[in-house]
Structure formats: C-alpha cells, structure tokens
Amino acid sequence: MLRIPSITTYLQLRRKVTKTQMNEITILFHSWVLYFLLDRVYREFLIKSRGARDSLGEKWKPLSESRRLYKPLQRGEVAPSVRRQIRERRVTKKVALANRNPPINIDTGRLINSLKPGRVIAGVYQSQNPDQVVRVTVTGISFEIVVPYADEVQAVRSFLPGNWDPWLSSAIALAVPQVKEKYQNVFL
Question: What does the domain layout of the chain look like in residue ranges?
C-alpha cells in the first residue's frame, strides 16, 4: 500500500467539511495520484524499451544479439524486398537485420498494456485492463500487475521504481489542481 499525505497538506480548507465529503475528496485525490503515477510508469517503460535512460537515470540492459535478431518481426519492420532476399537465401538473416533494434520488454504488449493508466470516472480511478488490480482507499492506494511473468521481468529489467518519491511528488503536484477544480468552494 502506497501511503500518500493528506490533500489538506497541499491545500488549505476554506470551510468545514463533513467526514463523508473529506473521504470523497481524499479518494478523488488518491485516484488522480494513481492515474499520474501509472502514466509516468507507462511513459518511462516506453523510454527504456527504446534503450534510453528514464528520468531516474535507469536504463535496461540491451537485448542479446540472438534475441535482437530472432525476436519476431513486426509488420512493416523489414521491407518486402529484404524479406524476399532472406527467404530466397540470397542474404543471411544476420546480415539483413544487423541494424535492427526491436523494443526491449515488448513482445505481445501485455505487460506494457497492464501499465497503461485507466480513467478517473465519477471521482474514482477505474482500471481499463484486467491485468491491473487497483484499490483506492482513504488511507492510500495499492495496485498490482497480475501479468504472470511480471515479477520475473521486474527482477531482470525493473519497470517499477524502487523509490517512488520523485514520481510521487510529481504525481501529487499534478493531482492537486484536478481536485481543486472539482471542489473549488472547499479549498482556498
């Protein structure tokens, strides 16, 4: 469970609110924080899949040469003329695909799709993917990626940060205006 400071840490109340209202505000705040955190995780995954460093300075190890060459080809990745040359054995696959750089950690797309942020609907975060199990409460948020091989990938090429603080503070800064907009009459 990721504990998040109270919304009142960031915004001062203009008037008294009931406990029910405060719970609604807190769940909305947590929902937006989760949305922005997952958006960040998703974008950083894409950056690292191209072999670049993310905002925390982390970079995934590159694919091995054999994996790079023999990873299934994506549609349109290799020109038809090159495919024909490989098929007719006029050129080896290794020579034809020497400059190929397929994305790292993206084969079927299931793992990266499980990281796509859902939506905040009626003040509550709604996951759009069955591989993303989320719980947003007044006390915090928890989410789990239930892709069967996610733990193994995380151990080799970490896609979730060990230290959430830099991304959490950014997500909170983006979430506060969303809450303030909906509850303008409550906050200063």
Answer: 7-60+105-182, 63-103
